[in-house]
Amino acid sequence: MKILREGQYVSWWDNDRKDFVFRRLLQKEGPLTYPRTFTALTTDTKSDLVIFDELDPDEKHIYQLLLGVSPGVYYYVWHPYDEKMLKWDEAGDITDIDEDQTAVLEYEDTPYNDPQFEVWVIPDKYPALQVKRIQHEKVIPRVVFKGFKFNYEEVTDPTVLDNLKKGRVPSHPISWRKLE
């Protein structure tokens, strides 16, 4: 994961403004680790939807995280952005989460001890997961989010905004994606 530094810029689409917003990263905190263990799953079972609202930052914070998962289950990750990345709901039907906004991950995609799925968490856009067992024996699913928390400020200077929008000043687009 390319960990961003203080002074760098990030951007994301704001549905309310119908435009991209840009933020300059300030102080970095971490590394942080957020593990979660689900209840055991048996044949043809799935977990309840788990919402990670404890990762919902306040209005001046943002998280850059990697998600790692344990083997033996499909992890349906609720994806709050209007982007389609990774493989989308190829593993089966899921009714508890809007499947157009659901990424399906397995251990091979992003191992628990070597996470490869980047997740950016901005205010009111935090992840939710549901797991479905794929092995014959009982499985206890585990996930972990590892990364950093940043303070940030909104970019309002018209000259800097223009340079960011035209690509003269680099910004890192916020997304959920498998690392290259």
Structure characteristics:
180 residues, mainly beta, seven-stranded mixed sheet, four-stranded antiparallel sheet, 1 helix, 4% helix, 41% strand, elongated
Strand content: 35-45%
Instruction: Please give the alpha-carbon distance between the first and last residues.
Output: 9 Å
Name the structural class.
mainly beta
Strand arrangement across the biggest beta sheet: 10-1-2-9-4-7-11
Biggest pleated sheet: 7 strands, mixed
Contiguous uncertain segments of 5+ residues: 81-94
Helix residue percentage? under 10%
Tally of individual helices? 1
Question: Rg, please?
Answer: 17 Å
What would you say this structure looks like, in words?
With 180 residues, the protein is mainly beta. The protein has one domain (9-178). The chain is built from one helix and eleven strands. The strands form two sheets. The chain has a seven-stranded mixed sheet with strand order 10-1-2-9-4-7-11. Strands 3-8-5-6 form a four-stranded antiparallel sheet, with no helix packed on it. A hairpin with a 4-residue loop joins strand 1 and strand 2. The longest helix is centred in the last third of the chain and has 8 residues, at 158-165. It is elongated and about 60 Å long.
What is shown here, in short?
Helix content is 4%, strand content 41%. By secondary structure, it is mainly beta. The protein starts with 8 loop residues before the first strand and ends with a strand.
